[in-house]
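so the lab meeting is tmrw and i was supposed to have these ready like two days ago... anyway. pasting both below. for each one the top line is the aa sequence and the line under it is the C-alpha cells. i havent really looked at them closely yet so no promises
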Amino acid sequence: MAVGPHAIVLVGDQAAGKSTTTAAFARRGFPILADDVAALEDRGTSPFVIPGPPRLLLLPASVEALWSAPDDLPLVTPNWDKRYLDLTRSGFHYGRQPLSLGAIYFLGDRKPKIRGPIIRSLTGSEGLIRLVSNTYANKLLDPAMRAREFELLGRIARHVPLRQVHAPDDLSKLERLCDGILGDCESLGLNRPVTAR
C-alpha cells in the first residue's frame, strides 16, 4: 500500500492477516499496489514496488469483519469461498505507479491479550533471514539469480526499515493495528513528501 510517497509491504505466513489488514487500509482511502505478491524492481538502494492486479482476495470472515456480511463482496469463482475487493470501484484507490519501498512489516503470531499491536525493529541477520524466507519462487532461481537476489535482499536489510508486528487476536481491533502501523510510519518519516537533493 502507499503511505505518502512510499510503499509499505506486509509480509507473513498464510492466514497472518496480510490481505485483511491491507483491505482495512483500502477502506481508509490508502492506494493499494498489490496483494499476495509484491514484485520489486531493483533501482539502487531502495527497490520499487511494482503494482499488481487491482484487487484484494479475502476470506468470508475478513469480509464480515470489514463490511456487514460475508457476501458483501463477490466470489472469485463459484466453487471457492474467497471473495474479492475490486480496487477500481468507487471509494477505493488502486496504486498504478511503482513506488519506492519505504518499510516492510512482518506480521507475526497474533496475541490474545493485547489491546494494540506490538511493533519492534528487525536488524542485522534477523531481518535478512526474514527477507530470505519470504521470497517467492526460490526453486525457479539458478545460482547466479539467487546470488543477485541475495545481494538485493542484503541491501534492503541495510537500508529499508524492517519491523516485526504482533497484532491482537481479534478482528474487531483491526483499526488499532492500522493505527499502530501508521504511527510507526510517521516515526520513520514515510508520510512526508520526498524533497529533491
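ok protien two:
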Amino acid sequence: MEKHLQNEEARKKFKELVEEIKVCMFITATQSDHEHTRPMYAVDVDREGSVWFFTDIRSIKVEEVTVERDVHLVFSHPGKESYMDVWGKASVNTDRALIKEKWNPMIKAWFPGGSDDPNVALLQVKPTNVYYWDTEAGKMVEFIKTIVGAITSNPKIAEGKEGKLVL
C-alpha cells in the first residue's frame, strides 16, 4: 500500500527507520564520473531530518563531498523487511562541541583516540528525496499473511507500506 508522509510524520518515520537499520551504503560521486560506495554507521538523525555520520577528515569521502555534495544513502534491513533510498546534500563539520555531543562509545571502535582525536569529523546529510518500503510487522507476520492471502485468494493482505517521505 502506498503511503506518502510529510513534515513531522515523515521525519518521525525517517528517524525510526534510520535508528532501526543504522548502517547504510553511503554513495558519493567521483571526479571520474564513477560512484564510490562504502558502508557507514548513522549516529544520529536530528529534528530537521539530517543524518549524521562520523568520519576521518583525511578520508576520500570527505574529499568527494567537498567537490560534489550530492550523495545517495541506501538503508536495508532484510530481516525486518525495511528499506529506504535517500538522496541528499552532504557537508563536513569539524565543530568539536558538536562532535562531543554526538559521540557515543560505539564510535571508539573506529576512533580509539576518542572525540578529541583531531582527525574526527562529522558528515551531515540533509535529505532531498526519500522513498521507503516497510512492512512494519516483520518478516514472520508478513509470511503468515502471504499464506493466508494465498489460501483466501486475497493477495493484498500481505502488503506492506511504501512511499515518499517529504521531510
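from a quick look at the 2nd one: The domain at 5-134+162-166 is CATH 2.30.110.10 (Pnp Oxidase; Chain A). Helices lie at 7-21, 60-67, 96-102, 139-152. will dig more after coffe
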